[in-house]
C-alpha cells in the first residue's frame, strides 16, 4: 500500500503520491489520503474564513 505524503492533482482531479504530477498541478502535501481527498473543500473553507476576516478588518471590527 502506498504511503504519503499525499497530494491532490488539479489536472486529473485525483489523489496522488509524491511520484504524481508536477507540483504546479497539485495541492499538498497532506499527511493522509483522506485529507488530500478533501483538499478542494479545505481550500474553499480557508478562503471563506480569510474573506470573513478581511471584511471584519476593513469594517473596523
State the main characteristics:
61 residues; alpha+beta; 3-stranded antiparallel sheet; 3 strands; 20% strand
Provide a descriptive summary of the structure in words.
The protein is of the alpha+beta class and 61 residues long. It is built from two helices and three strands; from the N terminus they run βββαα. A three-stranded antiparallel β-sheet has the order 2-1-3. The radius of gyration is 15 Å and the shape is elongated. The mean pLDDT is 94.
Class based on secondary structure composition and strand pairing: alpha+beta
Number of helices: 2
Element pattern in H and E = EEEHH
Helical coverage, percent range: 40-55%
What fraction of the residues are assigned to beta strands by DSSP?
15-25%
Q: What Rg, in angstroms, do the CA atoms define?
A: 15 Å
Strand order of the largest sheet: 2-1-3
The number of E-state strands comes to 3
Based on Cα principal axes, name the global outline: elongated
Distance between the termini: 49 Å
* Sheet having the most strands: 3 strands, antiparallel
Low-confidence residue ranges: none
Q: Mean pLDDT, as a whole number?
A: 94
Give a summary of the structure in a few sentences:
This protein is of the alpha+beta class. The chain has helices spanning 33-37, 39-58; strands at 6-9, 14-16, 26-30.
Amino acid at each position: 500500500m502506498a504511503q504519503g505524503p499525499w497530494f491532490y492533482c488539479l489536472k486529473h482531479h485525483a489523489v496522488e503520491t509524491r511520484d504524481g504530477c508536477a507540483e504546479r498541478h497539485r495541492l499538498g502535501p497532506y499527511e493522509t489520503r483522506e485529507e488530500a481527498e478533501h483538499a478542494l473543500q479545505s481550500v474553499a473553507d480557508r478562503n471563506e474564513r480569510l474573506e470573513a476576516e478581511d471584511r471584519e478588518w476593513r469594517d473596523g471590527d
